[in-house]
Amino acid sequence: MPIEGMNDNVFLNSLSLQVVVAMIVGSLLSNTFKYHAKMFVIVLMSFLVLVVPIPLFLFKPRWPLNALIPGIVACAFIRLFGVEYEIRGQEHINVRNGGVVLLNHQSAIDIVMLSRLLREFRNIVPVVKKELFYMLPFGIASYLVGVVFIDRKNTASAKDVMKREAVAITKDHLKLAIFPEGTRHDNDTLLPFKKGSFHVAIDSQSIIQPVIVSKYHFLDHKRKRFGRGRVIIKIMPEIPTKGMTKADVNELTERCQQLMQTEFDALSAEAKQYCHI
Fold this sequence. Notes:
It catalyses: a 1-acyl-sn-glycero-3-phosphate + an acyl-CoA = a 1,2-diacyl-sn-glycero-3-phosphate + CoA. By secondary structure, the protein is of the alpha/beta class. The chain has helices at residues 2-29, 31-51, 54-57, 68-80, 110-121, 138-144, 155-172, 196-203, 249-271; strands at residues 83-88, 99-103, 124-129, 148-150, 175-178, 207-213, 219-220, 225-226, 229-235, 239-240.
């Protein structure tokens, strides 16, 4: 019996060693392997740092700053993979103002970028698709840090949720982080903006604050490459919507789209020199 147990341990230790060696060799020889490994580890780490403190979140549920420490850990971790963030325009943040923060959406690792912005805004909560709530226990952790879930397939339900959040913008001075493109992509041109976020801002007569994130030149999903680089994030001045009506939605949408595209082009050109893939 002891010999059998010893053999099992030897086998498991040997298997573990083989897996570790295979990962090291794979990372050295294959850019594709490094891409998948880095994406998996970063996303998994982002989930874990949010899930582990769930018991602490219960003391003050739905509080955005619950995610502050997990966010700091996530940013420190991704820096080990060669990705760093540079924030500009902090002087444009007014924590007393609730409103809508618009961001361009590029990758699943945007979750780390959002956690970095929490340190600056302190009252910001992302709006995400409802399906993420059912990714337990990550969905529960996200709910406890204030994340807003909407059902994109049910327009009436999504509108009801956003109406409630429009009240929270005014009452609790929350800023809703919304990706107006609706889906992530790595194109040079931003996708046409959906108008839901602009309706929310006008309904609450609050501000819109564009935040532009430079292109992830270090990350190429098509070629499966994940290198090293800098992400430049620029926080733009607030755009007031007080006095605007539904008739102004189209003009406001176009104005923000043009502004964010211009800044995206400039920041991406600058960030490219700091990226290696």
